[in-house]
Design goal:
six-stranded antiparallel sheet; 26% helix; binds flavin mononucleotide; alpha+beta; 16% strand
């Protein structure tokens, strides 16, 4: 029986007999363009917005080596290695330079100065309101995910570190080896030598000041986008990473000195130091296990906002989406949330040309990645080969594993549909992508430009100019039935990862791209025939060619790289 929704949320909800907070919340999320979510009348106080960077005042900064412009591995290589699971050939571990490349996924690469359709096109030219580019996208450009490292026996003094995205440096929060707390949180048997832990934690106010109740939906996808970047960057360095999504958050918060309220851990990724960086022999004064938990450093965080606030709905969903001390569900559970590339609703199939190579160096592709924000042009249709290559590359990353759904052979939790608008050889309409046969199944012919324009809530894209909309969907109630509310958080991590994969695949082909949440989910579900099923559209990615000859100013801050302008 599908899980039901709860009545604890303020505002409209369908039935008081329901039990899942996550499902009640997402019903509000999906309806939000028709019935605004509470708090009604919320006004964003832009003058009092938080900083995009978490900074500890008086912290001890350890500069990281500058990110490599080129990593020596293509996007294809990185995607392939990511989906192998433990069958991946053993890598050589990471050193500080490689770790810097990975953490740099949320670091700054340059200033955004291209003219586009965003409302901030003018203010961003002022130094105090500048907008900075990062390799990973984030809903609304809020970057709420904070990266941490917990290490004990590698090239750094044993300790807990925060990645300072403003400085591309590690901020030391505590000395001593606190890995045992993370280790216990993961429920892992033995503490392996030379393993450190990356933690992705969400600092809610960085997003909620803008999106209020909608925050949780966005940040849980943002986490997925960052995890995809980490996974691919580690793979480019020969390292296979399998993020843990199910762990006792309280123990991880203890290791990081977090209170779990302002900020909460969403994922842990074990990384291996290169063996020659791990000292042999017994623990020394600087590597011995720290028994006392590090003190909270929250008081030292520079909070730019004079007034901060919480949102009851976000707190409620966050509370029920925690895994806590519950035992990690058996990996066999993952199949319960699996999607099938079903043929039931399809009228006719169109074979796609074989995908071309995503041969661009991952480092360069990541640096060039950006959202198109209104720059699409219908003047040049999207080639079926281009669309097929983005679909194939993006879909492939669905097979990458996690602790709850290990690779190889995991059941993907998301799939892709296409709303084709200007695609060579494809009539305008809705299609389902069948990854195994690399073909598109026609669901319905329709004027997609008109449909998408009518159902897009913002003014920063002209949907009629967009060549195709990728729809990332998943069986949300099935995952909540299998895992409880953490199933929602874990599904959204996959959704965000798909978005980043699509961004990178499109960028590698020189296409314009942009993730959007602002399309009416209910209308899209109806168009795709998902409304009578347990599958829901969760995020959209716009694709197409961009107008040529666009005005911009190159302001890269990485040596040996350009901002990746394609004009
Ligand atoms: C989960 C997610 C949701 C997003 N939703 C929207 C959206 O609704 N509208 C939009 O224009 N951009 C959206 N974006 C794109 C971000 O605004 C963009 O990544 C951010 O502003 C940084 O710009 P960049 O991608 O050019 O680096 C989304 C991105 C992510 C990862």
């Amino acid at each position: 029986m599908p899980p039901t929704t709860t009545s604890i949320l303020p505002g409209p909800h369908p039935s008081d007999a329901h039990e899942s907070t996550a499902l009640a919340y997402t019903e509000q999320v999906f309806r939000r363009l028709r019935e605004p979510m509470p708090p009604l009348g919320y006004r964003v106080d832009w003058a009092d917005q938080p900083s995009r960077h978490k900074i500890h005042e008086g912290g001890t900064l350890l500069p990281l080596p500058q990110r490599c412009a080129e990593l020596g591995a293509s996007l294809d290589d990185a995607i392939r290695l990511s989906s192998l699971g433990p069958e991946a050939p053993p890598g050589g571990g990471v050193d500080l330079a490689r770790l810097g490349d990975v953490l740099g996924a949320y670091g700054l690469t340059g200033r955004r100065l291209q003219l586009n359709w965003n409302e901030d096109a003018r203010p961003r030219t002022s130094a105090t309101r500048s907008v900075w580019a990062r390799p990973t996208p984030s809903g609304g450009g809020m970057y709420p995910v904070e990266s941490y490292l917990v290490t004990g026996d590698g090239p750094l003094p044993a300790g807990t570190y925060h990645y300072s995205s403003a400085h591309h440096a590690l901020d030391r929060l505590a000395l001593g080896d606190h890995r045992h707390r993370v280790h216990r949180a993961l429920g892992a048997p033995d503490q392996p030598d030379g393993v450190a832990y990356l933690v992705a934690a969400v600092r809610f106010w960085k997003n909620s000041f803008k999106y209020n109740s909608f925050c949780y939906h966005v940040v849980s996808q943002d986490v997925g986008a960052l995890l995809a970047s980490w996974r691919l960057l580690l793979a480019a360095h020969g390292e296979h990473a399998e993020p843990s999504l199910w762990f006792d958050e309280a123990l991880v918060h203890e290791a990081l000195g977090l209170d779990g309220l302002h900020e909460s851990a969403f994922a842990v990724v074990p990384v291996r130091w290169a063996p020659d960086l791990v000292p042999a022999g017994p623990a020394t004064e600087s590597t011995k296990v720290a028994t006392a938990a590090p003190a909270s450093r929250e008081d030292e965080v520079w909070e730019r906002s004079r007034v901060t606030r919480g949102f009851a709905v976000v707190d409620a969903v966050q509370a029920t989406c925690l895994a806590g001390a519950d035992t990690r569900p058996d990996p066999g559970r993952a199949a319960e949330g699996g999607v099938t590339d079903d043929a039931g609703r399809v009228h006719a199939w169109t074979a796609l040309p074989p995908p071309t190579a995503l041969a661009g160096d991952l480092g360069r592709v990541m640096t060039a990645r950006r959202s198109s924000f209104g720059l699409f042009s219908s003047g040049r249709p999207l080639g079926a080969d281009e669309l097929g290559t983005v679909l194939a590359g993006t879909s492939r990353l669905r097979h990458a594993g996690t602790d709850v759904a290990p690779a190889p052979g995991r059941a993907p939790w998301t799939r892709l549909h296409v709303l084709a608008n200007h695609v060579d050889g494809l009539g305008a309409g809705a299609y389902a992508y069948d990854e195994a046969a690399h073909r598109l199944g026609e669901l319905q012919r329709t004027d997609v430009g008109r449909f998408a324009q009518q159902h897009y809530a913002l003014t920063n894209y002209n949907m009629r100019e967009v060549a195709a909309v990728l729809v990332i969907s998943g069986r949300l109630p099935a995952l909540v039935a299998a895992y409880g509310d953490p199933g929602y958080r874990m599904l959204n991590a996959d959704v965000g990862a798909q978005a980043q994969a699509a961004y990178l695949a499109a960028t590698a082909l020189g296409l314009g791209v942009g993730a959007v949440l602002g399309l009416d989910n209910l209308a899209v579900d109806e168009l795709l025939g998902l409304d009578g099923t347990d599958e829901r559209s969760l995020l959209f990615v716009l694709l197409g060619h961009e107008r040529v000859g666009r005005a911009s100013y190159s302001h890269s801050i990485l040596a040996g790289s350009s901002e990746g302008h394609r004009s």
